[in-house]
Design brief:
InterPro entries: ATP-cone_dom, NrdR-like_N, RNR_NrdR-like. The chain is of the alpha+beta class. It contains seven helices and six strands, in the order E-E-E-E-E-H-H-E-H-H-H-H-H. The two termini are 16 Å apart. The C terminus is likely disordered. Zinc ion (ZN) binds next to loops.
């Protein structure tokens, strides 16, 4: 990181601390040449995600498309729109965290959605599964229902929707993910916000 005062490229880190609700690391640095101090921020770089569709074609990840699909599945299930937004945020954040590959299959996304929907609404889960897994008939519904039943049996839950939701971190109003997703593509200074000592 180039010193903003003398342009020297070597500095030492005096202090690192988490900033912006854990979305970045703030570092105090001291230039090894002029000894002046400055601050840098390190953030995760958000890279566009490519979705490989069933037919092998590719398109860039479209958040609003995902949102529409989930909204449709949640129609008249009592799932609130804020909850759906959080769900989409969560899925998008998980996709962003798969750092090693920039491509995901529509299959991966569908399974991610299902894993999230399961805790939110069983009706929405079945609806989404029927579209995304392209159910052909009643047998597909029955199989999925059985899977769902087995899973909730294994969890020992009698299907009250509260437990998973209440200890979910997604509910907080100042969800840091939301900040990042909204802030990242804008023209804010990229990695190095420089401030004088
Ligand atoms: Zn310097």
């Amino acid at each position: 990181m180039r010193c903003p005062f003398c342009q020297h490229t070597d500095s030492r880190v005096l202090e690192s601390r988490s900033a912006e609700a854990g979305q970045s690391v703030r570092r105090r640095r001291e230039c090894l040449l002029c000894n002046r101090r400055f601050t840098t921020y390190e953030r995760i770089e958000y890279v566009p995600i490519t979705v490989v569709k069933r037919d092998g074609s590719r398109e860039s990840f479209d958040r609003s498309k995902l949102l529409r699909g989930i909204v449709r599945a949640c129609e008249k299930t009592g799932v609130e729109s804020g909850q759906i937004e959080n769900l989409v945020d969560e899925i998008e954040a998980q996709l962003q965290q798969q750092r090693f590959r920039r491509e995901v299959t529509s299959n991966d996304i569908g399974e991610l959605v299902l894993s999230q929907l399961q805790a939110v609404s069983e009706v929405a889960y079945i609806r989404f599964a029927s579209v995304y897994r392209q159910f052909q008939g009643i047998r597909d519904f029955v199989e999925t229902l059985n899977d769902l039943q087995n899973q909730s049996d294994r969890l020992g839950s009698d299907r009250s929707p509260t437990p998973e939701e209440d200890n979910s971190p997604r509910k907080s109003a100042d969800d840091p993910r939301q900040l990042t997703l909204n802030d990242s593509p804008q023209d804010s200074p990229p990695v190095s916000s420089l401030a004088q000592a």
